[in-house]
Amino acid sequence: MAVTDVGGARAVQRVDNDIDADTQLDLLRVMLRIRCFEERAEALFLAGELPGFIHLSIGQEACAAGACLALRRDDYITSTHRGHGHCLAKCAPAERMMAELFAKATGSCKGKGGSMHIADFSVGMLGANGIVGGGANLAVGAAIAARLRQTDQVALCFFGDGAANRGTVHEASNLAAVWKLPVIFFCENNRYASTTAAGAALSIENVADRAAGYGMPGVIVDGNDALAVHRVVREWAAHARSGGGPVLIEAKTYRMRGHYVGDPQLYRATDEVEAQRARDPIDRLAATLAGAGLLDLARLERLRAEVAEEIEAAVRFARESPLPSPEDALADLYVNPIERMP
Amino acid sequence: MAVATAPRTETGARTLTYVEALNEALREEMRRDPAVFVMGEDVAVWGGGGVFGVTKGLVEEFGEARVRDTPISEEIIAASAIGAAATGTRPVAEIMYVDFIGLAMEPIVNQAAKMRYMFGGKISIPVVIRAQQGGGRGNAAQHSQSLEAWFAHIPGLKVVVPTTPADAKGLLKTAIRDDNPVIFLEHKVLYFTKGEVPEGEYTIPFGQADVKREGTDVTVVGIHTQVLEALKAAEELESEGISVEVIDPRTVSPLDIDTIVSSVKKTGRLVVSHQAYEQGGVGGEIIARVVDVAFDYLDAPPQRVCGKNVPVPYAESLERAALPYKEEIVAAIRRVL
Asked: B210-336 domain in CATH 3.40.50.920?
């Protein structure tokens, strides 16, 4: 199977025989950015600085980073209501995203979308989505468009164990398989659909087992192992890119926070969450890199400090940005609106 | 196909069926722009292009990549078209009967209509979703509804309801070129009606009603078949010296309320008619907007002549009782005069 290197052609030290050191460090940096962004957003929300509600992906950073860094900038992703990590990993600017959470005019969506509707088409990020499973069919559409435009772009659809039970995911899987479209269905099985345990809504243990029903490969990967996620997405993206058709990858991960910030989490035991701390994807990658001689404590602290400064700058930018003008509520609906007519 | 064999009228203009006119629009736009493609259930193969033949001959000319038969999966027909529209193509997706569009409402309402707005106006969704609707062919409750009001209610969509073959062609071409999501609703009873269609290239702008017949005593606004029923009513009443103006809005979103208001200011009386259920229908919206700005011009309460508030029944006698025809329009006109 063709496997392409994402880190470029530079000769670099390899700690693993197939992922170069720069990419491994990039994975760590991206995961730290996501963690820092979300911990900051959580604190700001609890302090009453952010309106609406937000959903955090803390604990799932290896999925976002591992998958997105295995894609090209012009590849597409569709995301979920828990999409901050996907956006950041696909290189959407943190300051615009933070400003969007603050509902400011400088936000990614000019304050019209909020946390659940961040998109940045310039980096192929086709949108977080407030509708569970809503991104699956959009990703299939992007893959159809890529084929019609005769490019070799692929579309990766993030969805959760909850969305796996939506009819839309079934329709998307079937059509992508029938038409051999370049779609990567990437299920982040974080064990909970809102407050419902995956086991209470799935009669099988693995979402990936459903792939057989569509005649597509199903792959299970440790979703808290960034290198493993990266490797598997890179491999199957190359497969899809070369006309091999879609794949269903199930990443076994764990949602460390509640469904939303403020969720009292009465549906799971504290012990269960505590036990998962040993699987923390950032600690694991840092340990792996340290073991390979790529990272020492000083470098890790430096990375953390750089990331923290970037996110603090994003918060400052957001705080200092203006609110949208009330008249903007009526703008941006149609391209070339007809005067006096919506 | 249609062009070469189209019969000529006495004046030399072509007459085409509504289906042929739509087919011509699709063919011309697909030739003009390689980003345009068609997808839906049975659009390529069945009887040579859809249940009613609207897409006839397209797969032969443009190939299977641009004329795509889909599984019976309405949600993905609409949603993948929306995704493809967001990423550089111009899909024309077909939902075979508008009654099935309930299965595709999520992507239409929550994705297509909202993506541009909620992403801050930075993207466009140039998708057309075609469907045919309406009763009058004994197709019963799940194949006969008229649902334009569902979509007219949603900001972010445009809703097109052509009545004549010429309008169908010009409006479909406009829909395909429009950078916004367009719900293009055809009517199954109109499919095999014929009308003059101009030669050569033309489009018809959205938000421009067409006065199908001028009159001075009463304004009748009709949608789809009800334009034709209103014209029949106008003809019948002409012998009694009653002059009826018949307006076809052609698009219900955007709605050209100005043309309707101007007419009402002249006639002082308003009747609106559609096959769609009366409750929550577009007729009520039209009346409300006329009353907003022209209350003082009205000499009688505006009337609605619409589908009864029941599912469309199967038996011909029942279906006729549930749907509005010329007789009901005539009666409504008499009430306001």
From this structure: yes
